[in-house]
Amino acid sequence: MNLRLDWCSHQAAKFACEKWHYSGCLPMGKLVKIGVWEDSIFIGCIIFSGGPSPNIWKTYNLNPIEGAELSRIALTNHKSPVSKIMSIAIKMFRKFCPKTKLIISYADTNEGHHGGIYQAMGWIYLGEYGPKVARIYNGEVVHERTMRQQILDGKRKRSDFTEIPVKPKHKYALAYNDILNNILQTSKKPYPKRAVSKENVATGFQSVEGGANPTTALQTNG
């Protein structure tokens, strides 16, 4: 079995997120999109972004270009361990963005996730994060930032959105700076235990190139 990772198109990443990620969408903002192929079959993508807010990096005394969020692991049926796929993707991302000192990611407890993959890879667990309510419009969850922008643009009124209670997410971090890593270690919390999890459950296998052909990829044979 041949595992291959390479940069993929917006179209391919959009397809993977809509088909194989519980959010059903791409994250907002500038993205680094890494496609995943097994035996030349497109099986998904790993996406990095600037995070939910530029201000989040100020907490760690970092500039926005020094922090990134691992925003999506959108995979269909696969033979390769997710940890192996992520390790290669992170290596590619760091080579592409060498100034990155910190990567964060969130495990959504509302989807039954507890972050087992981050625990297996030795990420630092920083506790629960996020609002305790979600905004709903037309039956769909709307990100807080999107809601504020729509209100500012005059497209919606605050009364157009309803609120529902949600669970906070689990926050994990991976530092590439010794000083920063030591600081994070002081905030480290015990890993949360697995609940009823939907992690790594594929939503169907699809053989598709997604509009992206591998070029200078990292690859492994196994």
What's this entry about, in short?
With 222 residues, the chain is of the alpha+beta class.
Description:
By secondary structure, this protein is α+β, with helices and mostly antiparallel strands. Strand 2 and strand 3 form a beta hairpin. The C terminus is likely disordered. Helices cover 22% and strands 30% of the residues. It contains five helices and eleven strands. The protein folds into two domains: 182 residues, 3-Layer(aba) Sandwich (Aminopeptidase); 34 residues, no CATH class. The longest helix is centred in the middle third of the chain and has 15 residues.
Helix content: 10-25%
The coarse overall form would be globular
Number of helices: 5
In sequence order, what are the helices and strands, one letter per element? EHEEEHEHEEEHEEHE
Q: How large a portion of the residues is in β-strands, by DSSP E? A: 25-35%
Give me the CATH fold name of the largest domain.
Aminopeptidase
Main sheet summary:
8 strands, mixed
CATH architecture of the largest domain, by name, is 3-Layer(aba) Sandwich
* CATH top level class name of the largest domain: Alpha Beta
First-to-last CA distance:
5 Å
